Amino acid sequence: MNILVIGAGAREHALLRGLSLDPAHPSLHVAPGNAGMTRLATVHPLSVTDAEATVALATEIGADLVVIGPEVPLVAGVSDALRAAGFAVFGPSRAAAQLEGSKAFAKEVMAAAGVNTATAEQIAPGASAEDIEAALDRFGPTWVVKDDGLAGGKGVVVTPRREAARAHVDSVLGAGNPVLLESFLDGPEVSLFCLVDGETVVPLLPAQDHKRAFDNDEGPNTGGMGAYTPLPWLPEGGVERIVREVCEPVAREMVARGTPYSGLLYAGLAWGQNGPAVVEFNARFGDPETQAVLALLRTPLAGLLDAVARGTLAQQPPLEWEEGSAVTVVLAAGGYPESPRKGDALAGIPADEDQAYTLHAGTAAAADAAEDGSGYVSAGGRVLSVVGKGGDLAQARRRAYGLIEQIEMEGSFYRKDIGAAAEEGRISTP
Ligand code: GLY
């Protein structure tokens, strides 16, 4: 079985690792990939929004399955072009990916499906200063200001400072995009990934991301600095409730609209007074939660993604998981997220083990690349994700931090508190 994975981050590295462990031993290709993936897959150059080039690459490889990692090619319709050319694809159509591509569309679907979410109001480019101020008056005291387009997880500002909210509104409108103002949802956040094939919904383990750059949730929002799974504080039956109240109604609504969803539906939720409420949907695996979630998946990944792509998810046996916990911690380049430094040398990356290993994101091979974990340089904001597994969250955290502490890179930083609040029992639902 030839599998082509599209994408270049640690999420795609985690997908490749999972696929490489499948007993079917698929032959793996990735595009555009990164320097750390060469041991698992053949790396091909690609512009991920170029549908024609993606079809040409899948044809050249003889791909039996194409797995699309990031949102940008999904929203650009790359999956539609691949399906039209006869390929099995893991990833929703352009129309279904609008659940992530347009937050206003997602709100409309949730309203039709009766799903609990924040109230929202759109400000269109060209709105007057008076209209913007009036809209800001209707929200607060914590403002949630979103770019109603794709921003790689970085287009959201959550702030108690009205002037900061206004500044973000101006910057998004200035870039020609509409703004979405949302009411602030209180309560701990949950990321629940579901495999969706029409009306069939199969949840993976729930996880929690850490979106702020620095410890204690301080600093700017990022694409995600670390995650852990499962969630010891989630009420019993919590996953089933999210599936019943959120994911299944949305899947049914997408079928009813004639745009059935096929792929991974990522529900980002806050667990508040009234239970789960949707913060946002994404049309793909989340990064970095995937690095932790797939670490515990026992069910062979290639067969599972292939079943979604071929519309046979309902016939799959229940998923199997390892007991225990998994934690991922992101090593970020100095200056991330505003202006990450590139070209810094990495050293001391330990050899991968079953319970603790490294996944690459923004790395490139240095001229003198070596097998001992030296020879890589930074090439992006999030450089590596390390993963630790264990019988419980404390052990998983110790293993992840034991690994990341050995890695050296000038100017780099990582959060020291990924999973700490959950380990210490400091998270509860209202
Ligand atoms: N975990 C945030 C994201 O994938 O967008």
UniProtKB/TrEMBL annotation:
Pathway: Purine metabolism; IMP biosynthesis via de novo pathway; N(1)-(5-phospho-D-ribosyl)glycinamide from 5-phospho-alpha-D-ribose 1-diphosphate: step 2/2. GO terms for molecular function: ATP binding; metal ion binding; phosphoribosylamine-glycine ligase activity. Belongs to the GARS family. This is Phosphoribosylamine--glycine ligase. Gene3D superfamilies: 3.40.50.20, ATP-grasp fold, A domain, ATP-grasp fold, B domain, Phosphoribosylglycinamide synthetase, C-terminal domain. Its EC number is 6.3.4.13. NCBIfam families: purD (TIGR00877). GO terms for biological process: 'de novo' IMP biosynthetic process; purine nucleobase biosynthetic process. HAMAP family: GARS (MF_00138). InterPro entries: ATP-grasp, ATP_grasp_subdomain_1, PreATP-grasp_dom_sf, PRibGlycinamid_synth_ATP-grasp, PRibGlycinamide_synth, PRibGlycinamide_synth_C-dom, PRibGlycinamide_synth_C_sf, PRibGlycinamide_synth_CS. It holds the Pfam family GARS_C. Residues 107-310 form the ATP-grasp domain. Its cofactor is Mn(2+); Mg(2+). Keywords: ATP-binding, Ligase, Nucleotide-binding, Purine biosynthesis. It catalyses: 5-phospho-beta-D-ribosylamine + glycine + ATP = N(1)-(5-phospho-beta-D-ribosyl)glycinamide + ADP + phosphate + H(+).
